[in-house]
Write a structure and sequence with these properties.
Blueprint (H helix, E strand, L loop, with lengths): L4 H35 L2 H36 L15 H6 L7 H7 L3
Helix pairs in contact: 1-2
This protein binds zinc ion.
Length: 115
């Protein structure tokens, strides 16, 4: 089975582009929160802090996703894309289609997640 790595590369580059746009927008939004804080009362300030915390965790998720995609693009470059990072067998095509940045096969993913 061969994988159309170029299609995955395009897909992941598109996603990186969207993440960059979202991050740029989020930066604008968080500077607005800071401005509001000095001007509003206590309840609104709590709201603003909660919004800021939510924005913060969203930013962290986006940064994590960025790193996952970067790593997957690197795997395309060095010819290891589509291989499980743990057992090195071929990844299931439906797993790759669901998430091109997937790093391990179904079996290894299940072994790894005892959380
Ligand atoms: Zn595996």
């Amino acid at each position: 089975m061969s994988i159309d790595t170029e299609a995955f590369r395009r897909r992941m580059n598109d996603e990186l582009q969207r993440i960059a746009e979202t991050l740029a927008q989020a930066k604008c939004a968080s500077s607005i929160v800071e401005l509001d804080q000095s001007a509003v009362g206590r309840v609104s300030r709590i709201d603003a802090l909660q919004q800021q915390a939510m924005a913060q965790s969203m930013l962290e998720r986006l940064h994590t996703r960025e790193r996952q995609i970067d790593a997957a693009l690197t795997r395309i470059d060095n010819g290891r894309f589509g291989l499980c990072c743990a057992c090195e067998s071929d990844l299931e095509p439906d797993r790759l289609n669901a998430d091109p940045a997937t790093v391990c096969c179904k079996d290894c993913a299940e072994k790894r997640v005892p959380h």
